[in-house]
Amino acid sequence: MAYMFFGYFAGIIAITAILVVALRNPVYSALSLLVMFFHVAGLYITLHAEFLAAVQVIIYGGAILVLYLFVVMLLNVNRDDRYHSQWRVAAFVCIPLSIEFLVLLSGGIGSAHRAPASLSVEPYISNNTLAIGKMLFSTYLFPFEVASLILLVAMIGAIVLAKRDIGENNAKHMTRAPGAR
Fold this sequence. Notes:
CATH superfamily of the domain at 1-78: NADH-ubiquinone/plastoquinone oxidoreductase chain 6, subunit NuoJ
CATH architecture of the domain at 1-78: Up-down Bundle
Structural class: mainly alpha
Distance between the termini: 66 Å
Number of helices: 7
Helix content: over 70%
CATH topology of the domain at 1-78: Four Helix Bundle (Hemerythrin (Met), subunit A)
Shape: extended
Strand content: under 5%
CATH class of the domain at 1-78: Mainly Alpha
């Protein structure tokens, strides 16, 4: 039964991830991204990580998606500038990934009778929020801080780009004659 849930969530995540990139309308792309975020949260629930599922929905499904929509609407990028014909590059990357996927599905190359490796799974921790906090602020503190700095630089860059466009548009409107359109 767990494999069926995983297959469902993984299939929907893969399909919606492709739709995020393939759809031309940024609003439809954002809706596909929202569906993907909810299904990733569903995967977290199947792994008994309810806190991560809630964070996934609140942070990614709420804040990041709204930020994405604000940036898309604020920048108002022309369709010609936004999309490029890159299907050759996509095919070049997709072929090795498809071969790897098929090898993984078949169980590996030359390993027809090999038993699956036993994983050392720690006992179920009832307080996964505490475990995540300890790992995040001890083992993964440096990558966590680097990610926050990258997000800060991206936010400042978006503000600078938006301010420059607003300043250019205001300058164009101010140089016109008062009665001209």
